[in-house]
Amino acid sequence: MLSTGFTATGYGGGVSVMVGAERGAYPYANSVLVRGTAETLVIDPSLSLVGTAPPADVVLVSHAHEDHIAALGDYETPVHVHVKDLAALRSRAVMVEGYGLPPDTAERTDLMLRDRFHVRDRPEATGFEDGTVFDLGGRTVTVVHLPGHTAGHCGFLVEPDGFLFVADIDLTSFGPYYGDVGSSLTDFEASMRRCREIEARWYGTAHQKGVIEGAAEFSERLDAFAGVPAKRDATLLAFLAEPRTVDEIADRRLVYRDHLEGPHVLPVERRTAVQHLNRLTGAGQVTEVEPGRFRAT
Questions:
Q1: Dihedral angle computed from the Cα positions of residues 270, 95, 189 and 241, in that order, rounded to the nearest 10 degrees
Q2: Three-class SS of residue 241?
Q3: How confident is the model at residue 6 (pLDDT cuts 50, 70, 90)?
Q4: Which of 219, 214, 234 is nearest to 171 (CA)?
Q5: Cα–Cα distance, 169 to 205 (Å, whole number)
Q6: What is the per-residue pLDDT across 64-101, written as a single tens digit (0 to 9) for each?
């Protein structure tokens, strides 16, 4: 797949958001360029940058998913990701394992990552931690660990501009995604709470919603996004008026619409269902009435 280009919009004195094709909807994503007096840094070089990626001295990756690294091959400069996503960035095989797919599907996915998203092993990539600061000269980029989507998912706070890139806490109506092997609903909800504590002038997302100006507007949109897991809880509780297995819940679907097909759908639905079952069982709202069958209490 060839890049279809991007449009760039500036925020503050040194931040440019490179909006991907189709407003950054998957398979595209939005990337960020940050310029200091000494160095320039790019965050999440996406598919729309392939072949046209702007020069940069450093590359940061919010998390090891293909839509956030498709143009990484355009850079020979140092690349960094959170330590918990480092293995997946260093090895495409590890990235594929993280999707938890059946073997035949995993093989096809590996080829798709290679051919459509240009994903290659980056064994030289290094890891950062929460709070790591990249000083570009007159401008800093601070790592904000926001796990849940992946274990190493991060945002980045650019100062003095007051720009917080929240990556795949993307505020879309689809809602939070926590369906990978290393995903966590609990961590995702904690990360959304952390985002509320960081006051910024602009909040940049990786996909369709783009950049939101002001903490009040961001908080309002985050409320709607953060409310999706509760709606999934309610859907599940209604479905569990009769005893159901995890497979039956996966077929009912908490995440994807019925018309969407693909080998990833049922594995994601199963992992999502188990997380909701665990928390509803812990809250006393669901009971395992017999091995492998659950009912609302």
A1: 0
A2: coil
A3: confident
A4: 219
A5: 7
A6: 999 999 999 999 999 999 999 999 999 999 999 999 99
Alpha carbons 180 and 134: distance in angstroms, whole number: 29
What is the CB neighbour count within 10 angstroms for residue 104? 9
H helices of 91-184, in order, are 92-97, 103-115
Residue pair 117/67 in contact (Cβ under 8 Å)? The answer is yes
Distances (CA, A) of 121 to 72, 89, 110: 10, 7, 12
Burial 220-233 (b: 16+ CB within 10 A, else e): ebbeebbebbeebb
Can you tell me the distance from the alpha carbon of 155 to that of 151, in angstroms, rounded to the nearest whole number? 13
Q: Would the pTM of this model clear 0.90, i.e. be above it? A: yes
| H or E, element range at 165 | strand 163-167
Rounded-to-integer distance, Cα 179 and Cα 66, Å = 15
pLDDT of residue 2: 45
Q: How far apart are CA 109 and CA 128, in angstroms?
A: 27
